[in-house]
Write a structure and sequence with these properties.
Order of helices and strands: HHHEHHEHEHEEHEHEHEEHHHEEHEEEH
Structural class: alpha/beta
Strand content: 5-15%
Radius of gyration: 22 Å
Strand order of the largest sheet: 2-9-8-7-6-3-4-5
Number of strands: 14
């Protein structure tokens, strides 16, 4: 009997039937040609991966812990890794009262986003997100049927006045939101950093309206300018902030390692969810990472990343000044850290349509409309500066500038 499309469709879940292929992933198929300079991915530079150190660590760890590394592990995570992560967090922040009940090791923060969606979202529940926001988070929440309400970003974080106006409208209608999802530090895709004043205001508003806050912090340690700011988790006395963290941008994305820090009751629920997802995060990856941290290698790795990415970020900004048309209504963010910056064109320019002109010039960005929870805007795009080499940044921005000059002339 041949496969029957109609039969298959009649059996799938409502959630899976509403899922769509990622616009970004589909467009990225067009940039696989070697002659294309791509600023579209969110990849760390491969030169930052500690290959030589890990060769020795893997061999040594297998000799000492082989039977543990190659066996199932606990759902909560490797005890040594958790202790190291908690100590490091408490040493670097004002939080001093964490223990192993506050942390769960996960298969990178993308799994954490999916688990958060499963924990909080019933179909048609309301959540609030930044506009624009991380596509992976939006996709994870959309899969559980969330209705997303976006709050516009400004240069120093969300528009607080708009945030409160939308909350008032929701709560006056008898509804509520389950949580607010935010990337306060060097936001993906926009690159902006939420000010201390706005961080405190977000906590105050969450207390007033009684909703959870999901703080996604993949880029926080990649700061290139100015002083560091506290995590929302540090500013929250009530336990309503859930912090999501990952090694993907500061160590190795291929190991798929992240962790969640939250109130013990939140962690307990997430452990139950994870048991049904993958039983445990790979003990092999956790043990070699714990050894890497115990040898004191992580801090030096992060500093080297910062030095490289600061250089590439500044190079891209200088190239914008050099090659983009002047006085044509083009604006871009100037991030203090992270991996991305955000370019906005005049409102009459559709960057989805422009993408195909850009590809013909053998360069690529990510269309901005893909990053919206609601009411997408079509005149922006995201640029990544961590992955392309210095010479490709220069040449790629030059090619992009040629297209923009032609379009805006």
């Amino acid at each position: 009997m041949s496969f029957n499309d109609e039969m298959f469709e009649s059996h799938i879940s409502i959630a899976s039937s509403t899922m769509k292929r990622s616009v970004i992933r589909e467009l990225l198929k067009l940039v696989e040609k070697p002659e294309i300079i791509s600023f579209a991915g969110g990849l760390p530079a491969p030169t930052t991966f500690p290959v030589d150190e890990l060769k020795d660590i893997v061999t040594t760890s297998l000799s000492k812990y082989g039977n543990i590394m190659l066996q199932y592990g606990s759902t909560e995570g490797d005890s040594r890794l958790k202790r190291l992560l908690l100590k490091r967090f408490m040493d670097k922040t004002s939080v001093k009262n964490l223990n192993e009940n506050n942390i769960l090791v996960v298969s990178a923060s993308q799994q954490a986003l999916d688990m958060v969606g499963k924990l909080f979202i019933d179909r048609d529940d309301l959540i609030m997100v930044e506009n624009p926001s991380y596509l992976g988070g939006l996709s994870a929440f959309r899969a559980y049927g969330a209705k997303m309400i976006g709050v516009d970003l400004e240069d120093d974080g969300i528009n607080i006045e708009q945030f409160e106006e939308k909350l008032n409208k929701i709560y006056n209608s008898g509804k509520k939101i389950k949580f607010f999802y935010t990337i306060p530090d060097f936001q993906n895709p926009a690159g902006v950093c939420t000010s201390l004043e706005k961080r405190r205001k977000i906590i105050e508003i969450a207390d007033k309206y009684d909703f959870m806050i999901i703080e996604d912090a993949p880029y926080k340690e990649l700061r290139y300018e100015k002083e560091d700011l506290p995590y929302l988790y540090e500013l929250d006395p009530s336990g309503r902030v859930i912090g999501l963290f990952t090694f993907s941008k500061i160590y190795c994305p291929g190991l798929r390692l992240g962790w969640i820090i939250a109130h013990p009751k939140v962690i307990d629920k997430l452990v139950i969810i994870k048991q049904a997802v993958d039983l445990c995060t790979a003990p092999f990856n956790q043990i070699i990472t714990a050894e890497y941290m115990e040898r004191g290698l992580l801090e030096g790795r992060i500093q080297k990343n910062i030095e490289l990415y600061r250089k590439r970020k500044n190079l891209m900004l200088n190239a914008f000044e050099k090659y983009f048309p002047n006085g044509k209504g083009i604006k871009w963010t100037k991030p203090e850290g992270g991996l991305f910056l955000w370019v906005s064109l005049p409102e009459n320019i559709n960057t989805e349509e422009l993408f195909f002109d850009v590809i013909k010039n053998n360069v690529a960005y990510v269309i901005g409309s893909a990053f919206y929870g609601d009411e997408p805007k079509y005149n922006s795009f995201r640029m990544n500066f961590s992955y392309p080499t210095e010479d490709k940044i220069e040449e790629g921005v030059k090619r992009l500038g040629e297209v923009l000059k032609k379009k805006l002339s």
